[in-house]
C-alpha cells in the first residue's frame, strides 16, 4: 500500500489530499471550510469529477464525515486505495521532534504542550489529528513537523544572545519553519542537477505569503531565516520579518501600543501590506509599474532583504552550488527572480533572461550555461513530502 491521506488542519478549515506516494500522483484533493460557523462548505476533486456542497460542519469530526461522503460520491473508492497512513502537518515540534512521528497519546500531549510556541496552529493541528483518528481508527497516523528539518542547526545558529537561563526556561531559540518544503525542494534540486544531495551547497527561497530562506549543506539545514516563530526573516505579505527589537519598546513607550497591538502590527499589518496597503505581490508590482513610489520602495525592500540572506548564507556555506526559488511568489514571478539575481555575478550567479521567462509546472534551470551557481525554479510539493515521510514512519516506504 502506498496511498496516504495528507491532512492540513486549521482552526476553521481542513485541507486534504489522497496521494500515491510511490508515483507521486494526487488521487483526490479537497477543502473543508468555515468549520464551526453557521454554514460550512466543502470542495472535493476526484477521478469522477468535482463537487461543492454547503452544509452544517460544527467541528472537525463533522468535517471528516463530509470528506468521507465526498470520497464516496466523487471517488476514488477508499476501499480500492487502502490507506497506509494518514499524514498530518504539524507546525511546531519544538526541539522534541526531529523526524516523522507516529501519533500516540504521548505525542498528542507533547503537541499540546508546544501550543504556546504556535498558538494559532498547533491546537488546530491537534484537533484535526483527533478527528482523523475517529474517522480512520485502524490506520496509523503520522505527524510531520514544519520545524523538524531544522533540528540539524548547530547551537551557534539557533541560539539567541539573551539571558541563557530565561531562554531555556521559556524555550526561546530559533526553530525555523517551512522545513517540509525546504527538504522536498533541496532533494529535487539534486535530482535535476544529477548530483548527490550530500555534496551540494544550496540556498532555497520559499517565497509565498509567508517566506523563508534556508541554507542546506549536504541535505542538512544549517541556517534558516524564520526564528522562534514564523515572524523573523524575510519581508512577507503581512509580516515584517527582521526588525530591531527596540522598535517595539519605542512604539510601546511613544505610541502607547500594548503587547497584543504590537503582535497584531508585526504579524498582520506589516510586510507588503504595511508598506503599500496590499499584501499581494501582484498588486504591489502593478502599482509600482504605474508609478507608485511606495510600491517600488516595497519591492526594493523585499529584494534587498533577499540579497542580504543570499550573501550571508553563501558565506556560511563556504560556497554555493544552487539557488532555488519556490512557492507561489518564487515560482510565478520571473521579474522578481531577475531583480534578486541582478548584481550577484560576484557570487557566480548568472540568470538567463529567456529561460527565466519560461513558465511551467516542472522543475527547471533558469541560469546561464556558464553560471557557476545553478539557479532553479522548483514547484514545491509539501503534501507529497508528508506522504513520503509518513510511509517512512510506518515502515512502508
List keywords for this structure.
single chain, 397 residues, alpha/beta, 8-stranded mixed β-sheet, 6-stranded mixed β-sheet, 15 helices, globular
Textual characterization of the structure:
This protein is of the alpha/beta class and 397 residues long. The chain has helices at residues 60-74, 105-113, 122-135, 155-158, 164-169, 179-193, 246-254, 259-268, 271-276, 281-289, 293-317, 327-332, 334-341, 353-357, 382-394; strands spanning 3-9, 14-20, 25-33, 40-46, 49-55, 83-90, 101-102, 141-145, 201-207, 211-217, 220-224, 322-326, 364-365, 374-377. The strands form 2 sheets. It has an 8-stranded mixed β-sheet with strand order 5-4-3-2-1-6-8-7, with helices on both faces. A 6-stranded mixed β-sheet has the order 11-10-9-12-14-13, with helices on both faces. Helix 6 crosses helix 15 and helix 10 (281-289) packs across helix 11 (293-317). The model has no long low-confidence stretch (mean pLDDT 95).
